Amino acid sequence: MTAPLPAAPLVNATRFRAAHQATWERLEAIVGRIEKRSVRVLGEDDLLALPVLYRTTLSSLSVVRETSLDRALQTYLEQLCTRAYFQIYGAPGTAWRQLAHFFADGWPRAVASLWRETVAAAALGILGAVLGYFLVKHDPSWFYSIIPAELAEGRDPSASAQALKEVLYGSKDSDPLTAFAAYLFTHNAQVALFAFALGFAFAVPTALLLVYNGLTLGALVEIYVAKGLGPMLGGWLIIHGSTELFAITLAGAAGFRIGLAVGFPGRASRLESAVTAGRTGGTAMAGVVLMLVVAGLLEGIGRQTIQLDWERYALGGSVFVGWLVYYYLPRKRHALA
Known about the structure:
The chain is built from 13 helices and no strands. The chain is mainly alpha-helical.
């Protein structure tokens, strides 16, 4: 009985090279041009072809590794793929370019990807505000359980309409007004940072913080509405609140993304899932910090210089629309992505 003949190789090295050589050479030529000069020297056809050629070459490398066709060919393709990867996915060359990319694409794209979590966070904040409003409306003593008396500094259910109105239209030299506004900003900044930081605990603390923040807003709104000052309060709040409350909502959304990644990692490990979610959440939070700075500037300048309600609503509404356009306006994906 004769011994069985060895199985023929599944892939012929010569034919494989002939079939894919042109792709490898074109990729190498494009990468070489970028390395010598910059990506700006590429024409539109080469720029669009670069990621396709890279992925095709990666497939070729996989075949070579699996079939052990040619050690020299494997080394060549590994080096070519490494060079191409760096040019496609490598970090930008300058800090200014990285910063420009963050504002133009990284930050808004990260926020837009969190839209489901953002809707959930906004719903919890609104739920808390409605609950806080009706609790205080039903029993004013709830106000002191939600907002401590020492922080309210007289701006509570027992305050007169005149005293509450002074908060809305006080001068820039009004120390009580400045202290109260500073408290609101500090409180909201803390809520935003904690909402994100505590997201890893399956997002439960994040949800509670969002509801609590809504409670404080609802309690504050009720005492003004009860004195017939609701629209005036809305104008005072919207100048900075359209940015500040939006920032809190986004921080909660980032916390939810991490919490859900930890609780429901899918096929990936919990660590891998958390790391991926952390990149998106961290990018969004970097923007949230900037939003809080903008809110502080709007509060400090707008409250002191704008006294007409319609101007306050116009400014706050315009800023809010601007954030929506910036985050959610459809963007073309970069050709290298």
